[in-house]
Design brief:
Blueprint: H1 3-8, H2 13-29, H3 32-42, H4 47-64
């Protein structure tokens, strides 16, 4: 298996949770835009899931306010 094989697979749920937690911390310290950039950057190898993860993040922010 080479590195491209790993990129094709979906990231683990624990990795996705970790990214969401980091994004929430960034949103608290900086702003939503920077947090979204973090999600986009972290999930760059999986472009097909970026939008869904950003939507989850935004929805979670709305619920918490």
């Amino acid at each position: 298996m080479d590195s491209t094989d790993q990129v094709d697979k979906r990231p683990s749920n624990s990795y996705l949770r970790h990214i969401q937690v980091e994004a929430h911390k960034m949103e608290e310290l900086l702003n939503t835009e920077e947090a979204v950039k973090h999600i986009e950057s972290a999930l760059e190898p999986w472009p097909d899931i970026i939008e869904g993860e950003i939507q989850k993040f935004i929805l979670d922010i709305k619920k918490s306010k």
